[in-house]
């Protein structure tokens, strides 16, 4: 019998939210990032997701030596708390130089800034002893089609991936697709686009994908199918599990809060593929309700993790004989009823 996966979980410090949104001020006081590390283990998490400036605030104004020193301090903090850095992502959507994109900007000096920032991000990951570099290509797209040469933009994205692979022979590039927001039309909207870039790169084995549930839903796709596609190519480096209420802005709701069956299928696909047995994390990207009181607010993380584990048990207790019988007889009505009753604890 195959050994059951012992899942381990991660989240980013931004998920312990202070409660701000674009339409008002903060409703809870800021909770310092460095104080958040002590909350991970008690909540059942051991992996930490980072943006580069989560590790080194104000990094654009610091020297290489100062950046390395600060990153080394954070590495010691993580070690003291028994935590593992899962990845570092260059935050290329707040800087004034990236208003119209970073790697795909029409301006050569802005593209140069993006590359310098990315090299610093890789240096930070190296100082943390972390091999994952996540590219969420937030502003790599357009508001109107004619604003950029899309073919050239894709070439520039591939050049960037190759440059990262060449800059550090140990890192992996994990591309996190999203179809829109903050740009109207993103250039890498789905995991299929990300995997195409992987195969076109200099080192395809070091280029993978990170799938966020809500991002797949915003593209009108099923997250479990996107995960299955990446798994079929052995290119699912990580996941950001959450939920989404329709084709709105990216909501980062608790995992399974909107569509429990869709959440079940995500867990089923991961479990059946043996995801996690090589140390991959179950990453969560969930935000606290703006109206939630407390300081710090962490129940959304605890609840999402607990629901994932409950759904793991639902997957493991599924009567596969019934499933196979329904598939063989093509009786999908019976299969659907069985699944729904199973989820409700009636069978």
Can you walk through the features of this model?
The chain has 347 residues and is an alpha/beta fold. The chain folds into two domains: 9-316, Divalent-metal-dependent TIM barrel enzymes (TIM Barrel, Alpha-Beta Barrel); 319-347, no CATH class. It is 44% helix and 12% strand. The protein contains twelve helices and ten strands. The chain has helices at 33-43, 52-55, 64-81, 108-128, 150-167, 191-200, 213-218, 223-232, 260-273, 299-316, 320-329, 332-343, and strands spanning 9-11, 47-51, 84-89, 132-136, 141-142, 172-176, 185-186, 207-212, 236-241, 282-284. It has an eight-stranded parallel beta sheet. Helix 11 packs antiparallel against helix 12. The relative contact order is 0.12. The mean pLDDT is 96.
Instruction: Provide the succession of SSEs.
Output: EHEHHEHEEHEEHEHHEHEHHH
Count of DSSP H/I helices: 12
Task: Report the average pLDDT across residues.
Answer: 96
Describe the strand arrangement of the main beta sheet, using strand numbers: 3-2-1-10-9-8-6-4
Structural class: alpha/beta
**Which outline best applies?**
globular
> What's the end-to-end separation, in Å?
24 Å
CATH architecture of the largest domain: Alpha-Beta Barrel
Specify the CATH class of the largest domain.
Alpha Beta
Taking pLDDT < 50 over at least 5 consecutive residues as the criterion, the unreliable ranges are none
Question: Which range best describes the helical content: under 10%, 10-25%, 25-40%, 40-55%, 55-70% or over 70%?
Answer: 40-55%
Beta-strand residue fraction: 5-15%
